[in-house]
Amino acid sequence: MRRISLETRVELHGNDHINPPRCSVVDSNKSTESAYALQVQVALVVDLQPDATIYFRMSGSSAKSPYGQPIVITTPGTVVLSAWADKPGFDTSEIVTCSYAIDGPSRLS
To answer: Quick check: 64 and 43 in contact, CB under 8 A?
Structure first.
């Protein structure tokens, strides 16, 4: 009698890189072609991987913060937002940078 092994070995080699987040303006009031009046609200989204954790850092800060809701930028001048995504089992995404120019005096949000 012959023995037949029904064991099958499957190896999956998929994409282990997470998509980088993208910056999306949620609410703003453009004062010129390239600047926003007083403030801009920015949402960060990772396409096709909604359960990824997004982190961001604002220009001039060394601390990273987890993203949870749209970011309100009110600092006059040019503000650079750096963002990246992380998810267990995946490599950390590339860092994306988005720049926003804000006109007007600084104010609390």
So the answer is: no
Using 50 as the pLDDT threshold, list the residues of the chain that sit under it: 1-14, 108-109
Cα–Cα distance between 57 and 81 in angstroms, integer? 6
Structure token pair of residue 13: 């080699």
Label each residue of 45-84 as H, E or C: ECCCCCCCEEEEEECCCCCCEECCCCEEECCCEEEEEEEE
CA dist 82 → 6, 15, 23 (Å): 51, 23, 9
Tokens of 109: 């949000």
Q: What is the distance between the alpha carbons of residues 72 and 57, in angstroms, rounded to a whole number?
A: 13
pLDDT tens digits, 2-18:
444 444 443 433 468 78
* Res 84: pLDDT: 95
